[in-house]
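U., I forgot to send this yesterday:
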Amino acid sequence: MKYIIAIIQPDRMDEVLRLLDEKGVHLVTVSQVMGHGRQKGASEVYRSHKESGRLLKKVKIETAVNDDFVKPAVEAITQGAKTDEGSIGDGKIFILDMADCIRIRTNETGPSAIG
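Result:
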């Protein structure tokens, strides 16, 4: 079992979610986050307001998958999140080992609890 965390550009979220769904990864959590990487200090214009500073708007997508879904999930995120130019700031994917999962409703544990 793995826990996958992806930090991507907000405008790529719908495409990533669509591709994850196509690959059979339906259980995801999405959060709006702020951060920076190599593009730090960049200014953005959002709804006619110039936002400058070190933090940029990003989206964090989290999902827990069984081992046979890791590769399809990573492929879906990579394909959906990459811009045409392959620019700095397209995002990152983190894959963590997961010790256990418990479905609260049924008390199932392990891979069957993920779904």
